[in-house]
From TrEMBL:
Name the record gives this protein: FAD-binding oxidoreductase
Family matches, as InterPro entries: FAD-dep_OxRdtase, FAD/NAD-bd_sf
Superkingdom per UniProt: Bacteria
Cross-referenced Gene3D superfamilies: D-Amino Acid Oxidase, subunit A, domain 2, FAD/NAD(P)-binding domain
Gene Ontology cellular component annotations, sorted alphabetically: cytoplasm
Gene Ontology MF terms: oxidoreductase activity
Family: Belongs to the DadA oxidoreductase family.
Keywords: Flavoprotein, Oxidoreductase
Organism encoding this protein: Brucella tritici
Keyword Transcription applies: no
Keyword Repeat tagged: no
Cofactor entry: FAD
Domain annotation FAD dependent oxidoreductase: ranges: 2-350
Length: 366
């Protein structure tokens, strides 16, 4: 069996990696659009503090976080260790006392039987600032030791390299699909046929453009995010935890004295690949409100990513009904970097008729 994957973001890269590990002939193509969510996303792995209600999305969110340890260990066997991954912990904070107490209750309930989350602590404002020095002086926090951060660019590239080492073909191209006798057929950018027994579309916010010629209404639209990168020259930030303000924008740090604040959630944005004054102001004002110590940081860049947001805010994972040989993975939204690697494993298992860790009927394409 040959599988063609269209879209090499975090979900497509994971699908390719897991299929290649099963010995499947895999080809993955990507158009390298500006604004790919994987290239802009911050990479927070901490589902337990989210305000998402318990249900199918939250279940997938938690499963995605639980899978990271196995993913990181598996990539080590291919020599892939530079993932920007660190289990640095997470600080949950809130300006409103009632909201803080609600978050504390929610986190305590959710981590009760989740060993990977670690033992949650209630930290004083002084203790919280020891972990994240720019934090406002009066903000106590809930500390979740099992929270992690990952560099999505590094992780996706590592999975693609591992897949390629197993024989997967990875290339840049803008392909198109058409229907022939009820099955999708793929054409390369130069018009030549791309042969495959199964086609998987993991093209994120651009998936609708690929699926429209098949007469399919794919309920995913781009949600624009603007995310700011700052640098604190000479400051060791590698062990700073992820900062999760309830009702505001997240902050996280990486190994190179870099701190990230994000991100806007701009619906009905289309593919407007521009940094806007309003977007930057929103993100900076929110970040400095909880971490005023970042006021003297250097602005490095503002990245733009288009999250694939489904209309019902649910992941879409499974075989497309009525179209033989077509599978879709999409709609992970802002949770893509937590869910994506695990969702790729699920799609690989689905395509090879392996037992599934999750009932995918709840996420099936309509």
């Amino acid at each position: 069996m040959k599988v063609l994957i269209i879209g090499a973001g975090i979900l497509g890269a994971s699908t390719a990696y897991h299929l290649a590990r099963k010995g499947i002939d895999v080809e993955i193509v990507d158009a390298q659009h500006e604004g790919k969510a994987t290239l802009a996303g911050a990479g927070i792995v901490c589902p337990w503090a989210t305000k998402l209600e318990d249900g199918p999305f939250y279940d997938m969110y938690v499963a995605g976080a639980a899978y990271y340890a196995a993913l990181v260990e598996g990539l080590k066997s291919f020599g892939e260790t530079d993932l920007g991954y660190g289990k640095v912990g997470g600080l949950v904070v809130a300006e409103d006392r009632q909201e803080f107490e609600a978050a504390a209750e929610r986190v305590a309930r959710r981590v009760a039987n989740v060993p990977e989350a670690g033992t949650v602590e209630h930290l004083s404002a002084a203790a919280a600032r020891e972990k994240f020095p720019p934090l406002r002086e009066d903000m106590e926090a809930i500390f979740i030791p099992g929270a992690a951060r990952v560099d999505a660019r590094l992780l996706a590239a590592a999975m693609l390299r591992a897949a390629a080492s197993l024989g997967a073909k990875v290339r840049q191209d803008r392909v198109s699909l058409a229907l022939k006798d009820g099955k999708p057929v793929c054409s390369a950018g130069d018009g030549t046929a791309v042969e495959a027994d199964e086609i998987v579309v993991t093209a994120g916010a651009w998936a609708s453009q690929i699926l429209d010629p098949l007469g399919l209404d794919h309920p995913v639209e781009p949600q624009k995010g603007q995310i700011i990168h700052l640098r604190l020259p000479g400051v060791q930030t590698s062990n700073w935890p992820v900062l999760l303000p309830m009702g505001s924008h997240y902050l996280l740090a990486f190994d190179d004295s870099r701190v990230v604040i994000g991100a806007t959630r701009e619906d009905n944005s289309g593919f407007d690949y521009r940094v806007t004054a309003g977007g930057e102001a929103e993100v900076l004002n929110a970040g400095l409100a909880v971490a005023p110590g970042l006021a003297t940081a250097t602005h490095i860049e503002t990245r733009i990513g288009f999250r694939p947001a489904s209309r019902n805010m649910m992941p879409i994972l499974g075989r497309m009904p009525g179209v033989s040989g077509l599978t879709v993975g999409n709609g992970l939204g802002a949770a893509g970097l937590t869910i994506g690697p695990f969702a790729g494993k699920l799609l690989a298992d689905l395509l090879t008729d392996a037992p599934l860790d999750v009932d995918l009927s709840r996420y099936a394409p309509a």
